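Input sequence (117 aa), recorded before submission:
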Amino acid sequence: MVDDLEAIRRKRLAEMQQQQASPQMENDAQAAYQQEQAQAERDAQVQAVLRQIMTPEARERLTRLKLSRKELAEQLESQLVMLAQNGRLQSMIDDDKLKLLLTQMQPQKRKTSITRM
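Predicted structure, token format:
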């Protein structure tokens, strides 16, 4: 009988702990969902701006760049959006201008040479 009583107490304690943890998990899930929604909204806004300032060929190149060098592509996107919002773009960004921007953004490779002594 003592064992039965102890088992009931343990079961009840476990139920109470689960009930307390459940609202916290729901709050965490809801916060994560809200963050995802906010990120998706920001991404949609960035894509809308890029559609306005870039030619289809340049957007395609940027999409391919995202597959291989995501950080560089995101950095370029943010700079282009900032320039567009500040009104500093005089014309559409075509593929050639995008190539030029990419070469300017990438660090210059150092030349190395081996000399004999």
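Checked by second reader. The mean pLDDT is 86.
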